[in-house]
Structure formats: structure tokens, C-alpha cells
Amino acid sequence: MKPKDITAAVKGWADAASAYLKGRGPQMEPVKRRTVQLGLYIVIILLINLVSVTMNFRCDLTRNNTFSLSQRSRDIVSNLKENLKIKVLFSRDLPA
User: What is the pTM of this model?
Assistant: First the structure.
């Protein structure tokens, strides 16, 4: 399934759920309406998680892009013919 298909399905489902709540929401008992809304929230959160897993997108929000690779590093890594394996060793004495 492509990300566009997933987002289209999520939008269609959300529109249908919204129309359902608008049409029948005021007629429902408050407890039942809250239960339906909670169910919708859970389904929406699960769909957002599904989309985020399939799209594999990350964003570095630090001030100086601390956790981002420079363009030169990206160029070098993209031209590698084999997988790159990095081992990092930490000690407890490192400053935070």
C-alpha cells in the first residue's frame, strides 16, 4: 500500500465518521457519544501510527541540527556499495 492510498483512506474514514457524529451525535446518549468519540480517537491514532511507520520520516528539531548528517556525509554514504556498520562505545564518565 502506498502512502497516498493510506492518507486517502484515512481522510475518507475521518469524513465518514465526522458525518456520522454530526448527523446522529446529538441524538445519542452522552455516554454512548463519548464512547464513539473515544473509539474514533483510538482508530485515528492507530492510523497515524500506521502512516508514520510506512513513510519512515525523521526530523531533527535541535537548534544546530546536532543529530543531522552534513551534505558531504550524505553524499559519501549514498555512494557506498556495501552496508555501513558503526560501533559506538560509551563510558559513564562522559559529560551529559
Answer: 0.39
Question: Residue 2 gets which letter from DSSP?
Answer: -
65 sits in the region (left: phi over 0; alpha: psi -120 to 50; else beta) called left
Sequence spans of domains, the chain:
1-55
What is the rounded distance in angstroms from the CA atom of residue 18 to the CA atom of residue 36? Answer: 11
pLDDT digits (tens, 9 = 90+) for 2-51: 666 767 777 776 776 776 667 665 566 777 777 877 888 888 888 888 88
Residue carrying C-alpha cell 556495501? 82
Q: Judge contact between 3 and 55, C-beta under 8 A.
A: yes
